[in-house]
Amino acid sequence: MEAMEALRYQPSAVARGLRTRETRSIGVLVPQLSQPFFSSLAYAIERTLFSHGYRAFLCSAEEDAAEESAYIDMLLSQRVDGLILVPTGQSMANVHRVLQAKVCVVLVDRDLPMLKIDRVLSDNFMGAYGLARHLIDLGHRRIGIISAPQHSGSISRRVAGINRAFQEAEIQPEQDLFVEGALEQFELGFSVAQQFLQSSRPPTAVMALNDVIAVGALHAAWKAGLSLPRDLSVTGFDDISLARYTMPELTTAAQPVFEMGRKAALRLLLRIQKPDLKVRRTLLPISLVIRGSIAPPN
Asked: What is the pTM of this model?
């Protein structure tokens, strides 16, 4: 012990793992750690793991399958006991490699329906449906939609929910009012909202498919000199912390982000202890948060 202290020796978790077959470390791989939703999700996962004696390797794939693959190689080389993954749009091969290495996996936020593994999701379809239905009930019929690329099932489900609300209200979707872009998300919301507002028939409401895009849209409306929400209603999705501090405060669909992260972490730890558990799909409800960014059309 004296020699260890003098040499500042630190035991190797990997070497110990070779002997005990556990490292008490978990890989947490998200698409974009810079995005508020994913950073909050990663925080919830990390806190839950830490409270149960596990440590997290936090990795950001930047929506790139090659980066995701490189991080998975690193996590497998570190002999993590499990992986919590928010998949990119091309994650099937990467997940198969993890499963072949006999490492437990739990998906969170985004689904890969063809895989028989645990997943913790929120009800994106009903969240977006409820927001669209609320705008329609206020009297809006010309509604612009700003979407990040539909490389994930969660965004696709939001689009499907909006389309269902439009069908029920007999609103014909207009191609020029649905814009999907790969720009940085604040910039995407800002530039597309500007495009909407400069058209000959601008929308009376804008649905941004996440809150970061919505903040960009709010800024574009402010720059155009509009009075919000009298001249334009704006909604987001996720209920990040910033949504409560925009002017006006942002109406959005609140994902239970901390509960999603907590449940994903607990499910993975249980799966590690009991590998033969029946696979579970957990679907959490989304609630509408009505704030000051929407009103009946002027």
From this structure: 0.90
